Amino acid sequence: MSGYFIVFFCFLLIQRIGELRLAKKNADWMRQRGGYEVGANHYKYIVAIHVGFFLTLAVEVLVWNAVAPSWWLLPLILFFLTQLLRYWCIQSLGPYWNTRIYILPEATLIKKGPYRLVKHPNYWIVITEIALVPLIFGAYYTAFVWSLINFCFLKAVRIPTEEKALLLLKSEGP
């Protein structure tokens, strides 16, 4: 199972690196148009949460020899469904999607795709992923600890910061 884990782990890392590159491109696009970042002081904690998650996952699976449950296929299927939702979020926001919080003056709040159905869908997807990925490999400690840490940080810091920033946008968008 460790071979499958390494392939899956590398897939996740490549995916995240690609998303960070897209976020940088989108940030550059917004800054060129007068956009600015909000909440930059807490971004290091988001990075720390994700790095901690990946490191703990690798240790639990490769060092502590976590054993995949007999029902591993269920969280794997759910994970791939969340990926479809993730890319729906990215596509819906287009150049406004980012891992950071950017405000573009005079922009309007986007209310299409999953954003017309629920607030902050990408955060719900990340919460789900942080729970699902470890469950595929039986890494229950990682699933519990990092799901709790991530949820609490999003609820206490990230979402309130983004909500305040979104108040600066016009209320109707495409």
UniProtKB/TrEMBL annotation:
A Pfam cross-reference name: ICMT
Keyword set includes Acyltransferase: no
GO terms, molecular function: methyltransferase activity
InterPro entries referenced in this protein's UniProt entry, alphabetically: ICMT_MeTrfase (IPR007269), Metal_cation-efflux_comp (IPR052527)
Segments traversing the membrane: 42-64, 71-88, 123-149
Keywords: Membrane, Methyltransferase, Transferase, Transmembrane, Transmembrane helix
Membrane topology according to the record: Multi-pass membrane protein
Cytoplasm keyword on record: no
Compartmental location: Membrane
GO annotation (BP), single: methylation
Protein name: Methyltransferase
Organism annotation: Ammoniphilus resinae
